Amino acid sequence: MYPILVQTQYMILSIDLLSWHFWHVPIVSGFIGWITTWMAVKMLFYPRRPIDIGVYVVQGIFPKNKDKIASKLGAVVQKDLINFTDIKHKLMDAQALANFGEEISIQVEKALRDKIEANVFSRTLIPEPLIQSIHKSIAKEIENALPNVIDSSITKIEQKLDIEAIVTEKVKKFSDQKLEDLLLAVTKKEFTFIEIVGGVFGFLIGILQAVISDLT
User: Fold this and answer.
1) Type and span of the H or E element at 58
2) What is the pLDDT of residues 16-42, one digit of tens each?
3) Which domain holds residue 51?
4) How many CA atoms lie within 13 A of 32 on its CB side?
5) CB contact set of 211 (below 8 Å; sequence gap of 6+)
6) Is the pTM value of this prediction over 0.85?
């Protein structure tokens, strides 16, 4: 056992780590690993138009599947991002209703006073306490009806507004360049990391190949 161990140690130590003969394989392998990964990422977007090479039609994955991407994105936006039930809950939250009520009260008072001020007889005959009473009564009625108004309004909007169709149509109309810019804005760092990893793995495999080659 010891002679084998000694022989293995001798063979490892005999590898010339400073020679170009040893390092050219890892460097070339690293470059190949990086360039192939870079090309794979680019082929997600290019070529933008189908190229018929006889046995196969070459086209970038995203341009080729833009309509499918648009449909899936539209479905996701309607189902998971713009949820009308959540919108109702947010608008009917106690704080939201209080804000609505405050704004309604201001607008009712303004409209009421504008009407009274516009008529000289009303301005003279209607006392301030009555104005306040009318204002409070109208504002209170509107505030009480507000939850039902919000609920019915959102329901009608939901029935008439097809978010999925709108998003799908918008994405389908994107140019290939705009689609690429949109996707890269989200994934550029990840794509760069993948390219670097491809180069690193290629380099490590090259070192392994060089060591095996020198040992044999």
Assistant:
1) strand 57-58
2) 555 667 778 888 999 999 999 999 988
3) 2-215
4) 11
5) 15
6) no
Which run of H or E residues covers position 194?
Answer: helix 176-215
Look at residues 44, 35, 43 and name the one whose alpha carbon lies nearest to residue 199: 35
Backbone region of residue 54 per phi and psi (left: phi > 0; alpha: psi in -120 to 50; beta: other values)? left
122: Cα separation from own chain's centroid: 57
Residues 119-161 have pLDDT tens digits of: 777 767 777 777 777 777 877 777 777 788 888 888 888 778 8
How far apart CA 135 and CA 107 sit, in angstroms, is 10
Which whole number is the average pLDDT over 60-70?
A: 87
Number of domains in the chain: 1
The residue behind tokens 């020198």 is 214
Round to whole Å and give the CA distance between 3 and 164.
73
* Residues paired with 57 in a beta bridge: 52
